[in-house]
Amino acid sequence: MADSHHILTCPACGEDMQKVFVTSLGINIDVCTKGCGGIFFDNREFKKFENLDSNIDEVIEAAENNDFEPVDESLDRICPACGAKMVKNFANRFKEVQIDECYNCGGKFLDHGELTKLRG
After folding, report:
1. Quick one: which of 54, 65, 86, 110 could link to 100 by a disulfide (CB 3.0–4.6 Å)?
2. Do 18 and 33 meet the contact criterion of CB atoms below 8 Å apart?
3. What is the pLDDT along the chain (120 residues), one digit of tens a residue?
4. Number of domains in the chain
5. Which domain covers residue 64, as residue numbers?
């Protein structure tokens, strides 16, 4: 699924997500800047963030450097791109961080702080 151009609703807290343009990658990432600090990646965007050499300062500034309200991570999440139920999966082979993934469209949602943990 291509990058969505409409405003998405955060699957964790229900707030509107903000498009944050990542200059070094040339893509928009959806960040919940007014609610919980979660980040939604459309299909294939997440892979670009696994490269530790990528400059993602815009996303880090928007999603990681603020105090956000905690959310109940045990609740079901609905994909903001396609409306399917998301599934919890580990983001890497070390099973350190569990993220929400949509099997229908390939979207991925990270709760506040999880991107920093993965890139740590």
Report:
1. 86
2. yes
3. 455 678 999 999 999 999 999 988 889 999 999 999 999 999 888 888 876 777 888 888 887 767 788 898 889 999 999 999 999 999 877 678 899 999 999 999 999 988 888 877
4. 1
5. 18-119
